[in-house]
Write the structure tokens for this entry.
Amino acid sequence: MAHIVLLGDSIFDNKAYIGNEPDVISHLQGIIPSNWQAALNAVDGSLVENVSGQLLKSPPDATHFVISVGGNNAIMNADVLGLKVSSAAEVFNNLSDRISTFEFHYREMLKTVLSRNLPTTVCTIYYPNFPEPNFQKLSTTALSSFNDVIIKQAISFGIPLLDLRLICNEKDDYANEIEPSSKGGRKIAAKILEVINNHDFAIKQTRVYC
């Protein structure tokens, strides 16, 4: 029997954005075996730094953790896209400092979760769904640096990775610019179950699921 616990932000805690349609946790609870459980500890608006608090509230019989977090950290640094600078080097230098801070917090968060010695999966930050093409292009480019941190840390710790950029790849996978729709949530839930069913966590080797 498995008890899957979702940690992170509104990628998992998306109920407020989809009305009466099923959210991620509802989709997951609907497809897992009848003797399994799934719990939502993720909280809309959370940062990487908030996951340790969510972990403290996890059920004592938890068997698997799945983490999707970092998008709000990226949003907090969105001002880098509008910096008035005299050269591109200034932008890259500023972004590098911010990414270093993000990497420190993400690594420490992951170490805390992994200290529970339970199978753990992390997710990339998926692309936004902005209607304005140029801002969409800038946003996805900037997110690459944050996702590079997540991918690097997943590989460093030898844990599986859900690449949400490829899982949520259609416009109707989004409820708005940055939240998953019920359809997107269904796709995410299906991939979570695929990881739990198929990944050999004992080998401590990263595999990308998409």
Q: What stands out?
A: The first strand starts at residue 3 and ends at 8. Strands lie at 3-8, 37-40, 64-68, 120-123, 161-162, 208-209. The first helix runs from residue 24 to 31.
